[in-house]
Amino acid sequence: MVRNRLLDEKQKSPVLTCEGLRKRFGEIEAVRGVSFEIAPGESYGLLGPNGAGKTTTILIVAGLLEADAGEAIVAGRRLTTKSVAAKSAIGFVPQDLAIYLDLTARENLTFFSRLYGLSGKETRRRVDEVLEIIGLSERAGDQAKTYSGGMKRRLNIGIGLLHAPSLLILDEPTVGVDPQSRNAILESVEQLSGQGMAVLYTTHYMEEAERLCDRVGIIDRGELKAEGTREELVALLGEHDKVHLAGSGHLDAAAKACSGIGAVQAASVADGSIELLVEGASAVLPQILTTVSAAGVSVHSVEVDEPNLEAVFLHLTGRALRD
Amino acid sequence: MGAALLITAKDLRQRLRDRSAILVAVVAPLALAFALGVTISGFSAGSRTFQIGLVDLDHGPAASGFTRAANGTPVQLQAEATTAWARRLVKSGKLDAAVVLPRGTSAATLGGAPVRIDVIGDPNNSIGTLVARAFADSYASYVRTVAVTSRVLGSSRAATVTVAGEVAAAKSPISLGDVSTTQKNLDPKTYYAAAMAVFFLFFAVQFGISSLLNERADGTLARMLAAPIPRRSILGGKVMTSLALGLTSMVVLALTTRFALGAHWGNPLGVGALIVCAVLAATAVTALVTTLAKTAEQANAFLSIVSVVLGMLGGSFFPVAQAGGVLATLSKLTPHAWFLSGLQDLSSGGALSVIVEPALILLAIAVACGALALMRIRRLIEP
């Protein structure tokens, strides 16, 4: 009983804890007191534009860069550039391709597997497994320089999986990748996350953060502005769904009639369409359409814009994600 | 140690696969050693025969005396009918030079009127001309000796002929030795085998330590740094790659030139010790130069310049130390010069102790450059 409770406690303790991380390069403070945690099996996204401090944070968390202040604890061990034990819990997938092009996929995987301390037998088993996961089993004996861009990307990710790390760090793995390979990468990450591996994922693509991450941290100018689930972040925004009704007829009268519906916070007419600010649009949309028709409007199209992380980012920083 | 060995094995696999190391560490030095050794050997009196034309306008016994004098020398005399024909052969390069014995040479030997022996040479073959001139000089000395002896003794013509025969057959009471030159200098094949080996050594070891900059640019260094291994393992792996490539290059070259070109490197133990010291020095110098660069391209440029300059000053292309003056002093600052000097001492038959000084100086270069490199190399092992 006691043992089980201890195991549960251990499983609940975060895989990664960052507390007040700071890093300065000359005059520029790239990371300013960043703190967050990642639980086992959780996918955490660091969302921010280029130059927001994502990669510097990642480099500290991967043990590649020493923080000026604060600390990172991985699997219960304090992480520094010299902490060998803490690093063994991390799988790191850098932003750029970091593979040996003149070695085969098998040779690349074998080299890094041995570097991570796996024995010869374990290495052979894990290399075969990872080749299967990244779909390169049939090309395992070809030099990486003969691979397509997507295959190289998959090999780049595969290296990070070799030692079955507790925490997989992916630094913008889809930058410069074609849509097909991008989708394959996202599916791989979803799969790994589903298998219980904690994932730290940086991106400046809002769609990726929304699709992959259980929780998202919004980072800008080295500061973590907010974090939480997508819903929690959207709630911070305090905005509601925007419903656009394009049609013909008595639009003003229809808008007035809609404002009588409890969930509708605001109704206006602009550019030949009715715009409504609605709380939980999907639930009240049928009632809205009935009301509009009853007011003598023939509806041609309906568009519902849900608030997203991009809007949250805009709200929190005053800048667009791709700025 | 395990991680360092893994990195070395990976590096060596890469270098063998792209054949760059084989080309730089073995093929290029071997080809140049062969080309230079054979070419320079062609100019060595000890290893080639000079074709000297002999135009006998005297038609007396002098020509046979002249021919007899060529026995046992690197000169092969070839009778030519006329001076004009001999001149044409010299000009076309078919003869190294020619000697014209004028009418009256035999008579001059027996006390007759003095004559002048002409040497026909080609300005482009100064060595051939010098050999023919020395040979003619030697004959003139012989004639002078006979003439003086006959005059002093008041000999008759018959007695003079006897004196001439005696002088020709007599062994010189004084012999010349080449202790300060031939024995101290390596023969051309060995010299250029060793010189090219140590010259290309500086290029071969670059594949190890300076590849840190390539790995940093390619992102694979960051990946290694993220692995649970100490940073010193990465550095150790790269240094071991340099040492392995350097040692392999030197040993392969020593053995190949020994058996294929007939180079005489000397006592294997001493040669081995000199090779190890030279490889350590080359690796340390390369590491230090690499730390001065910011990018792989910059490192390649710096290392090429340093390797060529050290090679030239150190005597890889010609024995600079023999030029004396500032060049000789500068030469002593290079590992190349000390390596070649050690080999020269060793091949002159000296005991193993003769390599102590060059070996210690090579080690001192290795320690000094290695220490400076270690102080600066930290910034290379960063993502």
- Counting DSSP H or I runs of 4 or more residues, the number of helices of chain A is 12
Q: What is the total tally of β strands of chain B?
A: 4
The string of secondary-structure elements of chain B, in order, is HHEHEHEHEHHHHHHHHHHHH
Major sheet summary line of chain B: 4 strands, mixed
Please report the distance between the alpha carbons of the first and last residues of chain B: 22 Å
Multimeric state: heterodimer
Task: Walk across the major sheet of chain A and give the strand order.
Answer: 6-7-8-3-9-10
Strand order of the largest sheet of chain B: 2-1-3-4
Mean pLDDT of chain A: 85
General form of chain A = elongated
Helical region count of chain B?
A: 17
The CATH C-level class name of the largest domain in chain A: Alpha Beta
Number of domains of chain B: 2
Approximate strand percentage of chain B:
5-15%
What number is the mean pLDDT of chain B?
83
Going by CATH, the architecture of the largest domain in chain A would be 3-Layer(aba) Sandwich
Which runs of chain A of at least 5 residues are low in confidence (pLDDT < 50)? 1-7
Structural class of chain A: alpha/beta
Describe the structure.
The complex is a heterodimer of chains A (323) and B (383). Chain A is α/β, with parallel strands linked by helices and 323 residues long. In chain A, the strands form 3 sheets. In chain A, strands 6-7-8-3-9-10 form a 6-stranded mixed sheet, sandwiched between helices. In chain A, strands 2-1-4-5 form a 4-stranded antiparallel sheet. Mean pLDDT of chain A is 85; it is low at 1-7. In chain A, strand 1 (16-25) and strand 2 form a beta hairpin. The N and C termini of chain A lie far apart (54 Å). Chain A has helices at residues 2-12, 54-61, 84-87, 105-115, 120-133, 149-161, 179-194, 206-212, 230-237, 251-258, 281-294, 309-317; strands at residues 16-25, 28-38, 43-47, 69-74, 77-79, 90-93, 167-171, 198-203, 215-220, 223-228, 241-249, 264-270, 273-278, 297-305. Chain A contains 12 helices and 14 strands. Chain B has helices at residues 2-17, 20-41, 62-69, 83-92, 105-109, 126-153, 157-169, 188-204, 206-209, 211-218, 220-226, 231-261, 268-291, 296-314, 325-331, 335-347, 356-376; strands spanning 50-56, 75-80, 97-101, 118-121. Chain B folds into 2 domains: 2-42 and 187-380, no CATH class; 48-169, D-Maltodextrin-Binding Protein, domain 2, CATH 3.40.190. Helices cover 66% and strands 6% of the residues of chain B. A 4-stranded mixed sheet of chain B has the order 2-1-3-4, with helices on both faces. Chain B starts with a helix and ends in a 7-residue tail after the last helix.
